[in-house]
Design a protein that fits this description.
This protein has helices at about 45-60, 120-129; strands at about 5-10, 15, 15-25, 35, 35-40, 60-75, 80-90, 100-105. It is of the alpha+beta class. The chain has a single domain, classed as Nucleoside Triphosphate Pyrophosphohydrolase, CATH 3.90.79. The strands form 2 sheets. The protein has a 4-stranded mixed sheet with strand order 5-1-7-6, sandwiched between helices.
Amino acid sequence: MVSPIVVVGAVFERDGRVLACRRAPGKTDAGLWEFPGGKVELGETHADALAREIREELGVEVTVGALINRSTTLSGTKSIDLATFVVTPASGFPTESSDHDELCWVARSELSSLDWATPDRPTVAALLG
């Protein structure tokens, strides 16, 4: 079996709403919603990788907090090991993304109304708790 791709995702929360990001056209899973983040590089901790990815994608510095969910799912032919964490922005919330064509703030109770990428669904379920 192929080793899973290890990735991290950020859960921003503001006024009871959670940040969802839609994959841009031309990207894998284009049009599906996800929590922002990306691959963990060799030698990085999950927290270091997440802080780097959010800086690169969303242009904000974050403090990485508690683990929300970690699960491995199949996405097409790839096995994805996704760990999602609560993050707190150092100054201001993100307003744009280099990897997404839309950012939206969604009430927790409405999270399931979006079409989520498979790896992000366990985190959605955990947030709906």
